[in-house]
Amino acid sequence: MLVGDSLSSLDEFALIQSLNYKKQSNNFHNKLGVIKGIGDDAAVVQTRSGSQLVMTCDTMVETIHFNPYTMLDEDVGYKAMASNLSDIAAMGAIPKYALISLSIPKHYSTFRLKKIYKGLYECANYFEIAVIGGDTTKSPKHLNISITLVGEVESNQALFRSNAKVNDLVFTTGYLGCSAAGLDYLLKVKQKQLMLGQIPMNFLPLVKQHRRPTPQIKAGRILLQSRRCHALNDVSDGLSSEASEICEASNVGFLFDEVKLPIHPQLREYGQLIGKSPLDWIMYGGEDYQLLGTVSKADVVHIQNRFQQEGIPFFIVGEVVAQKGVQMKDAYGNIKKIHKKGYNHFN
C-alpha cells in the first residue's frame, strides 16, 4: 500500500484486515481466554470464576482531542488506548479486551491509519490487552476513534469514588499538570507533526506526558490488593474536577495542602518562562491519567511502602474533611475554595 493511497481502494473488511493483521498472535489471544476474536459478528471470551467484569468506553475526536499540531499519528492510537486503560486502573481492575470503533474521513490514507494502529497496538501489547473486534464507518470530515475496554476484578472488590471517609489522607500517584503544559507548548509552537527530536530537552517530559501518558494499572492493583484504599479516581479532567467527583460521591470535602502538591521541575520551569502558575495546570489541566484517592491515616505507611517497593511515586496532598467541596490551604495557612472547572466538553 502506497503512502498516498486513499480508502477507496479497500472495502471495509480489507481495511480491517490491513490494520490488524499479525498485530497479535493466536497464542497471545488464547492466553487471555479469547475464544473468537476479529472476524465474526461478535467476540467471545472466557472469564474466570470469582471475578466481575469492568467495562468502559472512551472516544478521541480530531480537532477536540488532537490535531496535527499536537499529536503524531502513532500517538493518537497510543493515547486512545491509554485513556481507556486509566479508567480500568481507577477501579483497581485488570484490563483484558478491547473493541475499536473507527470513523474515517475520505482524505485519510491507509498509511496514516496504519500509523495510528501501530501506536494503538504498542499500548495494547505492552499492557497485554487483546484487541478482539470493533467497527469501521465513514466520517464526513474528522477522524473519530472510540475504544470499549473490558477488564476484570475480584468479585465485590472494585474501588469506587464513593467511599472516602472524613480524616482520610488524600494521595496522588504521580506528577500532575505536565500534560496540559505540554499541550500549551505544542499549541504555541503550532508546528505540524512536530517530532520529539525537535523539542527542547527541558520541555520534552511535558510533551511526552501529553502524547503518551502512562495509565497506572499497577498502582490501581496495589491499592486494591492492599484492601486499604477507600476511594479512587483517575485524573483525566484536572485535579479540581476529579476531587469534586469523589467529594460529591462520598458526601465529604477535600482540603488540599498547596505545599504538598508535587511540581515537576520542567513544569515549574515552563510556568516561569510564560508567566503562569503550575498550579493552574495541576488543578484544571487534565489528561495526566494519574490516580487520586483516599486512605486512612493508620494505613498510609503500609501503602507508601508498597509503592516504594514497586518504584511508583506516591504523594500525600491533603485530607478528607466534613465540610463539603474542595478547598486549598496555602503556605501561610490561608484556605480558599477550589471551583470545579476542569475540562468539560460542553462548556
TrEMBL record:
The keyword Nucleotide-binding applies. Mg(2+) 5 binds at residue 237. Keywords: ATP-binding, Kinase, Magnesium, Metal-binding, Nucleotide-binding, Thiamine biosynthesis, Transferase. It catalyses: thiamine phosphate + ATP = thiamine diphosphate + ADP. Residues 39-153 form the PurM-like N-terminal domain. Transmembrane segments: none annotated. This is Thiamine-monophosphate kinase. It comes from Chengkuizengella marina. Pfam families: AIRS, AIRS_C. Substrate binds at residues 65, 287, 343. GO terms for molecular function: ATP binding; magnesium ion binding; thiamine-phosphate kinase activity. One of its GO terms (biological process) is thiamine biosynthetic process. ATP binds at residues 117, 134-135, 161, 236. Mg(2+) 4 binds at residues 41, 56, 87. Pathway: Cofactor biosynthesis; thiamine diphosphate biosynthesis; thiamine diphosphate from thiamine phosphate: step 1/1.
